[in-house]
């Protein structure tokens, strides 16, 4: 599944280019320990070493999330290259973020909503942040 959208991806945390399957992890933006739901919008390709050594089960601080927003949108645009992934992410997003269904730039709107939702969940649950 992941190789379908990794033609030109960038880690939202390190800004490293992700070109090979050995370079990335498919990370939960909101860790499963915090948000135990596997919605496709919550899964993004990230630098493997950074994910395993630094991010782990934490959520980025607000500023880091906001800086990552364009790279999250880039990942969502990558999903759009596959009909089945496009449909799945749109269905997941529609259930979680009903206001973005008819946005002209779905990926950008989803990136913004993912950042806001992640910040809200992290604040409400006193999640460790980085």
From TrEMBL:
InterPro entries: HNH_nuc. Residues 11-61 form the HNH nuclease domain. It comes from Hymenobacter telluris. It comes from the Bacteria. This is HNH nuclease domain-containing protein.
